[in-house]
Amino acid sequence: MVSTPTLVHSRTCVKLDTGRLAFRTIEIPEPGPGEAIVRTTLATVCGSDIHFLDEFPMPRGVAYVPMGHEAVGIVHALGPGVTSFKVGDRVVASCLYGCGTCANCQRGEIALCLTFGTIPGITNALTGCQGEFYRVPNADLNMARVPDGLTDEQAILVGDVMSTGFAAVERAGVDTGDVVVILGQGPVGLCATAASRRRGAGLIIAVERVPERMALAQRLGATLAIPPEAATDHVLRATNGRGADVAIEAVGLPETFELALAVTRLGGTVSSVGVYGAIRHLTVPVTGNFYQRRIVTTLCPAGSDRLRRLLDLVRFARFDPSLLFTHELPLAEVVRAYELFRRREGGAIKIALRP
Question: Would the pLDDT of 269 be above 60?
Answer without folding.
Answer: yes
